[in-house]
Each structure stands twice: as structure tokens, then as C-alpha cells.
Amino acid sequence: MEEHLDRFRMFGLVPYNISPIQQGIQFGHALQEYNNVLGETYGGRPSPSYDEIGENFNTWRLKDKTFIILNGGTSMTMEQHVETLKDAGIHVGVFREPDLNNMVTGIVFLVSENVYKRDEWPDFKSWMIKRNPTVHQLKTLSLIELKNEFEESYQEWVTMVGGEKNAFLKEFTSQFEMA
What we know:
Elements: E1 8-15, H1 20-39, E2 41-42, E3 45-46, H2 48-64, E4 67-73, H3 75-87, E5 93-97, E6 103-112, H4 113-116, H5 124-131, H6 143-149, H7 151-160, H8 164-173
Parallel strand pairs: 1-4
Antiparallel strand pairs: 1-6, 2-3, 5-6
């Protein structure tokens, strides 16, 4: 049996207003779209996106295999989530359900442990408070205010969590609850 590494998880967003079994099915459809994009070939070679993320995807699909299905809200917010993720440079799989007027019913994206293992890699505010427990203003500042006030520390934290995409995903995924 293969060793479970727990290095990656496939996160997914589904609409709130479909049944739990449909949420799982729509997640699966979106996962296959993610896989399709990675598997597309041009002239017999893997697509450029496969070269960039294929190794992580293979680690996930062969060893980790864990899904996290989150409540993505309404049809409007699902569309917004697709654009937000793409604008941040996150590779996504998106499924539009033909039986629901091509509404986005599944969005998936691969997340590294630096994002979801919050005890080992806390969010920026928690990290700052732990490093500076006597600076009481840290608890009252918004994330934007913290980033602006402590820009050098923020850049140090971004490096610690594995870069801008992971920093974005930590903030992005924190807004959702399990489906």
C-alpha cells in the first residue's frame, strides 16, 4: 500500500443549494476537468500547465487523495470565485452543469500543506501575534492594515508559507465552511 503523505489536498467549491450527493458529484466533474486540462497534449507533449503543476498533482492523486469540499455559495459567487482564483494564477478545474443552464457547480484547485496545516503554517495575523505577544494593536488591525504596517514581516511570512499563491490561498480558503 502506498504511503499517504498529506502534502496536498484537492479543495473544491460547490453551490450551497444542491443536495449533498450532488455536491460530491459536481466536485468529481470539476476534478475531471482539472485532470483533462493537465492531460491535454500538443504535438504529443504535455501541456505547459502540466509541466508546472503535474508533479504536485501526481503526488496528490497517487498518495494523498484527500478532498475538501466547501460551500461556495450562490451561482453568482461561484462565478466570482472562478475569476478570483484565475486572477491569482491558481490552476482550477471548473464544471458547468448543462442541466442547470451551464451554472458553475464545481470548482477545484490543489492546495499544499502550507495552506491547510494551520498549526505549522499559521495565517499572517496569528503568526504576528505569536511573534509579538506584547503588541496589543495587532489583534485590532485588519489584514490589510497589518500588511501595510508590517510590510517586511509580511514578506517574511509569505516566503515561509511558500510564496504569494499560498498566501493568497490561505486567505481565500479561510472564508469558507465545509459543504
